[in-house]
Amino acid sequence: MGSIMPGVANWELIGAKKRASLIAAIPPEWMIPADILPPPSQDDVTTFPSDSGWFTPSELAITNSTAGDLVAKLASGTLTSVAVTRAFCKRAAAAHQLTNCLSEIFFDQALETAAKLDAHLARTGKPLGPLHGLPVSLKDNFNLVGLDSTVGFTSHVGHPATEDATLAELLRDKCGAVFYVKTSVPTAMMIAETVNNVLGRTVNPRNRKLTSGGSSGGEAALILFGGSVLGVGTDIGGSLRIPAACTGIFTLRPSFGRFPTGRCRSGLPGQEAVHSVNGPLARTLDDIELYSRAVIDTQPWESDPKCLPIPWRPATAERLKIGVIWNDGMAIPTPPVTRALKETLAKLRAAGHEVIDWPVGEEHKLGERLLSRMFLADGGRAIRNELEKTGEPWRPEMLFYAGAQDMGCYNMWKLHLERTEFQKRYLDRWRESGIDVILCPTTPFSTVEHGRFRHVGYTGVFNVLDYSCISFPSGVSVDKDVDISLLDDDGKVARQDSGYVPLSETCAAIHAEYKPDVVHGMPVSLQLVAGRLQEEDVIAMCKTVLKALE
Fold it and tell me: For the stretch 9-40, what's the b/e string if a residue is b when 16 or more beta carbons lie within 10 angstroms of its beta carbon?
């Protein structure tokens, strides 16, 4: 890394060099001209591609398309992979300059891959696979030979991967995908916002004062901006669903064993009390299904010993019995989320679906505590070891890891027993109720200002249960005139007409920090939860819900 500048810590120098190398990887012709560069004061940059005049009509048509439309045109030869890849590279370059969403940029390598795929189609007349020639973005932790997977640690900068992630191999070699960027994550991928000491903070393209969530927040920001049509993230406590909700896009959190997880970098390597899974993010549900079927059709159980030999099982869903969670016993949702639940349920009832309340009592509190204990079981040692290598400080969002105590092997075994008993009780209750799916918030809010994300209980409990989940945009957006705070003008006590009583200190803080005027216009997402290993079913049920919302 060279000599250290006076007064600059080693970790700071490493981060500065990494950030500079990313900008240097963008071709000069794809640096946004100064005269059209949105000023820092401009919050919403999602309209930049269409309004700036910097993108050609062809580039806009390509990058505004769905993955389904693109793969059809790529397979027929109507579009070349080089043209599609070049368009997404340019738009991804703009996305990074405006939102700081990328962790690795390798456009030249992507264009070489695209040219080879075009040559294959010309030679054989057949596409390589179901995603032939389609650019696909990957979260930072997916190893690609020759590229860093820092997962937000300065200690991993300059130590490129020597083997590809199993999923990456399958997407490239059997599906025909083209990789061109990797996307930023928070430190150790264990913060619900995307910020780290290597690359800094990723912001939300729809309002740069707000978070794009975490830990797959780089992916979500890139996709919302249009710099990717299909991306892959991971989820251990909500890391797919939270960013999808913060940006108003779709994602699928699969159960462990459906998609391959081998040879990826982890922020908590070896922690398997609750499994990290990976899944797609996209702007449409059809693209989520396209990806999911493509990956499972590669028979990933032949490549990853932890994948289950379950082929794709087409599913349909008609009349549903839906259990609704109004709050999880820990945090009452902010007004726009409650309104989205009410409006969605009214439309579902009108469409003939049965809706029952799904009260959680102390159940979800227990699940959230189980998750927290699993994350902290090593006393923060895995994270501390990486930070100490370069003298990198603990981020303020992670101080609870710094103060954790190693629970020891015996207590970890006992924790596993508690987890299994929790899973059994929930399964029994589900079967006895006869519900098909749970509808609940993804987060207690639409999104929040930077540094103010609180509470992963609505997502994390379902990681402990290992249930199949989808976060989807409800069609509701925050309206500052309708979704007024439950607190008085000082934000200190509940309005007399609200009936609000905080469920916890976290709940009180969420509502004290809720500012309708700040999040005005932001989309509100909800979550559908099916049983374990029911990916096809939860996609089908989400289609049914979306039909009712039309």
Answer: bbbbbbbebbeeebeebbeeebebeeeebbee
Which two three-digit tokens encode residue 76? 């027929």
Cβ count near 403 (within 10 Å): 10
For 407-432, what is each residue's pLDDT tens digit?
Answer: 999 999 999 999 999 999 999 999 99
Give the whole-angstrom CA distance, residue 115 versus residue 81. 7
Q: By C-alpha distance, which of 285, 292, 328 is closest to 459?
A: 328
Three-state SS string over 488-535 comes to CCCCCCECCCCCCCCCCHHHHHHHHHCCCCCCCCCEEEEEEECCCCCH
- As a whole number, mean pLDDT of residues 441-452 equals 98
Active site residue 498: no
Distance CA 240, CA 528 (A): 13
Tell me phi and psi for residue 535, to 5 degrees. Answer: -60, -45
Residue 496 confidence class, pLDDT cut points 50, 70, 90? confident
Q: Which of 18, 139, 174, 182 is catalytic?
A: 139
Residue 5 has pLDDT above 70, yes or no: no
Contact 49, 90 (CB under 8 A): no
Nearest-angstrom CA–CA distance, 455 and 445: 10
Question: Exposed, middle or buried: residue 454 (CB in 10 Å: 0-12, 13-18, 19+)?
Answer: middle
Q: Where are the alpha helices (DSSP H) in 148-273?
A: 166-173, 217-225, 241-247
Contact residues for 511 (Cβ-Cβ < 8 A; gap 6+): 332, 334, 485, 486, 487, 491, 500, 502
pLDDT at site 3: 44
CB-based contact 242:444 (threshold 8 Å): no
Cα distance between residue 523 and residue 520, in whole Å: 9
Residues belonging to the binding site for substrate are 189, 215, 236-239
Q: How far apart are CA 532 and CA 462, in angstroms?
A: 10
Report which secondary-structure segment, H or E, holds 47: none
- For residue 289, the model assigns a pLDDT of 98
Q: Is 215 marked active-site?
A: yes
Structure confidence at residue 117 as a pLDDT band (50, 70, 90): very high
Residue of 65, 184, 228, 239 with catalytic role: 239
Please give the backbone phi and psi of residue 135, each rounded to the nearest 5 degrees, phi first.
-65, 130
* pLDDT tops 50 at residue 283: yes
Strand (E) or helix (H) holding 420: helix 408-433
| pLDDT for position 7 | 64
What pLDDT sits at residue 17?
A: 98
Active-site residue (options: 81, 103, 215, 292)? 215
What pLDDT is stored for residue 361 in this prediction? 84
Which DSSP state fits 229?
A: S
Q: What kind and span of H or E run contains 153?
A: none
